[in-house]
Amino acid sequence: MGSKQSVGIVEPKTAVLGDLRLDNGSVLSPTVVAYETYGTLSPNKDNAILICHALSGDAHAAGFHSDGEKRPGWWDEYIGPGKAFDTNQYFVISSNVIGGCKGSSGPMSINPVSGKPYGSSFPFVSIKDMVAAQKLLVESFGIQRLLCVAGGSMGGMQALQWSISYPDALENCIILASSPEHSAMQIAFNEVGRQAILSDPNWNNGLYEDNATPRKGLALARMMGHITYLSDHKMREKFGRNPPRGNLLNSDSDFAVGSYLIYQGESFVDRFDANSYIYVTKALDHFSLGKGQELTKALSPAQCRFLVVSYSSDWLYPPSQSREIVKSLEASDKRVFYVELTTNEGHDSFLLPNQRQEDVIRGFLNMPVNE
Amino acid sequence: MGSKQSVGIVEPKTAVLGDLRLDNGSVLSPTVVAYETYGTLSPNKDNAILICHALSGDAHAAGFHSDGEKRPGWWDEYIGPGKAFDTNQYFVISSNVIGGCKGSSGPMSINPVSGKPYGSSFPFVSIKDMVAAQKLLVESFGIQRLLCVAGGSMGGMQALQWSISYPDALENCIILASSPEHSAMQIAFNEVGRQAILSDPNWNNGLYEDNATPRKGLALARMMGHITYLSDHKMREKFGRNPPRGNLLNSDSDFAVGSYLIYQGESFVDRFDANSYIYVTKALDHFSLGKGQELTKALSPAQCRFLVVSYSSDWLYPPSQSREIVKSLEASDKRVFYVELTTNEGHDSFLLPNQRQEDVIRGFLNMPVNE
């Protein structure tokens, strides 16, 4: 393998696409999708890989928007020249989900009738709808068939949905740290997050103004979510029982782990919208391909090859949920590879540097397609 | 074993005890402790067992306060004639912790200077302070030595603290589903609960009025706590992905598990004080006997016999924390029995009916003391 490089400076783009009839019957018109691309589309348009993001992600998956940007895109570790998704070989597309708040159609979009953001009057968006919007984007490039759709967590749900919504339109599917449906406990954590937002006096039924958003509720939701993305081991390693650093009098917590969570909550509020948090977590909770025979039947239209990866320390999306997917794919004779990686970082593992994960993705993509 | 019976109607009592110098230097004067007793104290006062409650518990551990009361005390399953803590043999004492809100000295106590509740001006209370107040109560009965101190979760921390604060004053110690100190993850969950209360507009730095308490924040804290007390298995069994029962339009959640949590949060607010929630969770988080050699040293003064019980499905206080206690007790040659019970109910297991837990407690108490 060659040396790994950054994709460098990338330009955020926006596509204004056609109408989209949503799962709930509403029509999105137009469908706006924020996206970025890395690498070059081949003349016969057969080297495109679509990357799907998780709950709080966005289209900015790799590189930098400017020289001054401190951190690269969220999956820069895996996308770039010489990296697992090698932009010397592949044309990588990354887009923001609809229902989100990073440039695609969502509650923050302006309602042309009122001239104000839709807020909670934006229609409910499902994982299937997010994928349908991505399909419009992919078609706008003239791409009929993707080499691969890949994602972790909610991104894995989207990848899985791609395989059955558009069986002809992808050759490979990579599903990391994901699930065919949320368990009661996964729903429960999201529910408390939503309740925190609904309890905020600024909530105003989702019709809050720009200068009075439900910041405190959203920060609480993020704090709680953040605990579930880490492992006990990772937290111990990172914080132990240490007191907060810096000026104790200025801290709202007696412990470093507490002040870290408070910081995570507060900085999240500056970059995420409370309505989108509700929309996207509801999309997650309502996504359900069933289990056992029901799941096998749901997955039967798929024609692509699958790579499913789980992480030993992920207690939020435990390996057992990935194995459900694998079992059902095998039951209907799909081509599927499964790897459980031993990690200490909990659900966030798929986002973090991991040579083994890199090798597994690269190996899967390089393998002759009939294997 | 004989047939199990209820202790019947019990009378809540309050003891006004002497001054207590707290860990933080303040003096509690007087020390008020709410308590109940079940069974009869033997003439030579050698059959008394002290029961210690968990975070949201109270002195009402067994029986009923009136004929009309719907549910008996919180550990009625284990306390009564013919039960594990057999009131035909033992005199059982159960008291509310100081810092709590169920009759013992705490933030809801009236500050004689202002004529109003102390609220957040009540002094910080540690697990050691809670135990010191219990010692005053036990002495008020003329009891020099308890046959046993027993508790689960925070109650287990109190039992452990008893064994080293007053090594001469107890013969046996039962520690269920507990820990020698909170991990970063345990602290993190409590921290988010506290932040939820602090974010409530009614919080007013803990000096809220009776008619405007931080209800929403406390309800959120409870909802989140509640998730951590159950197991994924138990939640799936109880709710699965079912929609809420009853009128969907009146529900704030799309899922049964959500409406259950909302109900748990709301009903908790009616019976618990937000300041106490903060005080008691802080006592939990600050309790630290260390680990490894440090823990062994901390436990070295203990002279009693120990029973330590953990629960396979308890991911909040995992069996590894109980084994830490056992390992350190064994390292300094204490008499200790350890049982890991296989259960599906998560952290709440110790509160629930379990024949095996009953047998283990009964067997431990009946065993000749030198075994």
UniProtKB/TrEMBL annotation, chains A, B:
Enzyme Commission numbers on file: 2.3.1.31
Gene Ontology annotations of biological process type: homoserine metabolic process; methionine biosynthetic process
Active site: 153 (nucleophile), 314, 347
UniProt enzyme class: transferase
This protein's UniProt keywords: Acyltransferase, Amino-acid biosynthesis, Cytoplasm, Methionine biosynthesis, Transferase
InterPro entries given in the database record: AB_hydrolase_1 (IPR000073), AB_hydrolase_fold (IPR029058), HAT_MetX-like (IPR008220)
Residues bound to substrate: 222, 348
GO molecular function: homoserine O-acetyltransferase activity
Keyword Acyltransferase in record: yes
Name this protein carries in UniProt: Homoserine O-acetyltransferase
Source organism per UniProt: Leptospira johnsonii
Organism phylogeny: Bacteria, Pseudomonadati, Spirochaetota, Spirochaetia, Leptospirales
